[in-house]
Amino acid sequence: MLYQIFSLLLEVATGVLAGACLLRLYMQYQRIPMSSRSGNPLGRFVFALTDWLVLPLRRVVPAAGRWDLASLVAAYGLELVQFLLLWLLAGASGGLFAVPILAAFGLVRLVISGLTGLVIVYAVLSWVPTQSVISDVIGRLCAPPLMPIRRVLPLVGGIDLSPLVLLLLLQIASIVLGHLQGWALLAV
After folding, report:
1. Alpha helix stretches (DSSP H) within the chain
2. Rounded distance, CA 171 to CA 18, Å?
């Protein structure tokens, strides 16, 4: 029971911090203003959660074009620490080689979960016309993955079904990821 409670708390803390690192990476790639002067509350939140980890890593990990690799390394490092702690808490049973693999799959799972959450919030906000900074930011974050679907799927009765299709594709990706993780762990 204590292992499950600790695992849950660790997963939530890691999910929030690593998710913020990934959101920082994606927002910088999309060139969404994140400074306090921009009025973007999500950017301020992401900076507050991740500066302590990402800024020191930038001294060692350079950016690759528009990709802030320090944010990616920070997110992977957080996932790695999470699975290492769980492995140690479980009695260090099983191979240590599984920990980096689990961390990589955890990072991809976090991307899928984060994008799923963004699309759900985007869909809900699209039902109510708002002129807020946060709805604009979420719209800009969701636009790139929705664009290819919108090219193929026309509006149905004036309703955009692309978020629903994207959510379905993300669920399929999550199922495939689970099977790939199982195969990868069997190979180790």
Report:
1. 2-29, 41-58, 69-89, 98-127, 133-152, 162-187
2. 20
Q: What is the C-alpha to C-alpha distance for residues 142 and 139, in angstroms, rounded to an integer?
A: 5
For 57-109, the pLDDT digits (tens) are 999 999 999 999 999 999 999 999 999 999 998 887 778 889 999 999 999 99
Burial of 152 by CB count in 10 Å (0-12 exposed, 13-18 middle, 19+ buried)?
A: exposed
Alpha-carbon torsion, ordered 177, 178, 180, 184, to 10 deg: 130
DSSP secondary structure code for residue 36 in this structure? G
As given in the structure block, the two tokens for residue 112 are: 């899928």
Residue appearing with tokens 């320090």: 70
- Taking residue 60's Cβ as centre, other Cβ atoms within 10 Å add up to 9
Q: Give, in order, the Cα–Cα distances in Å from 75 to each of 25, 47, 127.
A: 10, 14, 32
